[in-house]
Design a protein that fits this description.
This protein is α/β, with parallel strands linked by helices. It has a single domain, classed as 4-Layer Sandwich (Metallo-beta-lactamase, Chain A). The protein contains eight helices and 13 strands. A seven-stranded mixed beta sheet has the order 1-2-3-4-5-6-7. The protein has a six-stranded mixed beta sheet with strand order 8-9-10-11-12-13, with helices on one face. It is globular and about 65 Å long. 35% of the residues are buried.
């Protein structure tokens, strides 16, 4: 990977809208993708905290430029490694300030995922090296910090203003969550809305991603009628009609892809033959970038 490619990759992983104030007390900061920060009356909750090291330290500097309130809650957007390896740094930050440790909140399948990652630690390293070649630092301790609180389909995390709700939106992973702020109609889609192209529904050697389930999660989020959609890496989608178009068109693209692939599987075509045989619908170029 050359320097230009590395810089472009780091920019994507940072999130293109990092540093934006979405509404009063609602911010997008940066770590591994966008970090959502919601100010409560006397504290803040954040979604994700990065992979640790300088990335999480930079996130904390960004946060302290926004607010001095203590970090009360850290939510895991999903269970993929790197998005919350920074929990020990957040705990240390709170300790240095004399604040209580943050409460860690996740969808309940995160714990199962972390147990699986621990049991297959060396295999996960092999897969990671295949997907992301290059030198890797060795960790002397378990990087996966289990959540303190888990939920199934829905959790009201903060009932009084600002009301904060967590929703289970299985998509890229079976433990992904979305954050819904009904008073301002702001939706953080997390891993269910990774960016500005069709979601990466196929990952060789990784856990299967279920296409129809992902589409259904997008449609459930659309039913909330959000006015603003915050994605994991891509641009902010502002305006109810624009949000509806993004969520429904992405769901439609996923359903189309699933139907086309299944049809060809039933004809006995193999992977390479399916790819060669697909004819994309008109105006679909944005989904193939």
């Amino acid at each position: 990977m050359n320097d230009t490619e590395k810089t472009a990759g780091e920019k994507i992983l940072r999130g293109v809208a990092a540093g934006a104030q979405i509404r009063k007390g609602v911010h997008l900061l940066s770590a591994q993708g966008h970090v959502l920060v919601v100010e409560l009356p006397h504290s803040v909750l954040m979604v994700d905290c990065g992979r640790g090291g300088e990335q999480t330290r930079a996130l904390l500097r960004e946060l302290r430029n926004v607010t001095d309130k203590p970090i009360e809650t850290v939510c895991y957007s999903h269970g993929h490694g790197g998005y919350n390896f920074g929990v020990p740094a957040i705990r240390a930050h709170n300790h240095e300030r004399g604040d209580a440790p943050p409460t860690l909140v996740a969808q309940r399948n995160v714990k199962k995922r972390y147990d699986r990652y621990r049991a297959t630690e060396q295999f996960q390293r092999i897969l990671g090296q295949m997907q992301f070649p290059g030198p890797r630092s060795k960790r002397s301790e378990d990087p996966y910090v289990d959540p303190d609180i888990t939920f199934g389909e829905h959790l009201i995390l903060h009932e009084k203003s600002p009301r904060v709700e967590l929703l289970w939106v299985p998509s890229e992973t079976d433990d992904a969550l979305a954050v819904w702020l009904p008073e301002t109609r702001v939706l953080y889609g997390g891993a269910a809305t990774p960016g500005d192209a069709i979601p990466n529904i196929g990952t060789p050697l990784r856990t299967q991603r279920l296409t129809l389930r992902w589409a259904e999660s997008l449609e459930r989020m659309a039913a909330l009628r959000p006015e603003v959609l915050l994605t994991e890496f891509g641009a902010i989608i502002d305006g109810e009609s624009e949000v509806q178009e993004r969520l429904h068109q992405t769901a439609k693209a996923l359903r189309w892809l699933r139907d086309e692939v299944v049809s060809r599987l039933n004809q006995g075509l193999k992977e390479e033959e399916i790819l060669a045989d697909l004819s994309y619908p008109p105006n679909s170029s944005k989904f193939r970038e």
